[in-house]
Amino acid sequence: MGTKLLVQRDMGGDPESPSFQAYISLLKKAIEKVKNRDTEVRFRILKKGLTNLKEICYSYLHFINDREVLEAVLDAEKEGFDAVLVSSFSDPAVNEARQAMNIPVVGLAQPSMLTALMMGSRFGVVAVSPESAPRNEELVMKYGLRERAILPVKSMPISPEEQFKMIEDSRHGIEAFKEVSRAYIRDGAEVIISACGRVSLALRFAPGCPELPNGLTEIDGVPVLDTVGCAVKWAEMMVALKRAGSSWISRSGLYVRPDAELSKAAREKIPYRGSGFIDVE
Predict the structure, then answer these.
(1) pTM to 2 decimal places
(2) pLDDT value of position 222
């Protein structure tokens, strides 16, 4: 039996724009490289949401956007999906969705960090900007990895706008990424993680860099993690455990589920009047 995976982007945007087309092309390519042969993937974006990396850097603006992400995925189980991958390193609304839904839900950060633990002793997370670094540090703490991550989190020495364009031409961005990664390596990092799904895709395929036909997968012998690939495999693994009848989530504590009547009453008090999502072919 194949797996039906929903990949939900955490941002809005014009699906016809060259930038979006470049992004979705590399995202599909990255997933195709690692997914099981019988995994079926559907892609969605928000009808209305944040549209650039500079906005995503601020927790206040991110929080406003997270409700849109949550609402976009809540009906995935009813629609026949076996798992949800929220394609964002911030793991927006992932915990909330896990509490509300009975299918596996993953983001990019937690699978990447947990995979890094199996690849080396310590890892470094490269933030988009100084403004987003504290959020990345919060994720490290949230997942209990303070002793394995190199802190404080370091950020890219180029602007979010420049990083956004890496999906079409990654040359300048790759040199900037190498610069901050080498600082991490000097501090003892054995694995490097990009704290941005879009940048991670640009590194994985290195558009505009013919000298990197396989992308930027290592720097001075230290691996650069494939965040999208890790998330896909974790989603597939959790689906396999669930189907096998193995324990796959705890409903005691963090992911305890409110009963249906309580959920219904709460949603009636705070009705959702948001924008929904757009399916991407």
Answers:
(1) 0.94
(2) 98
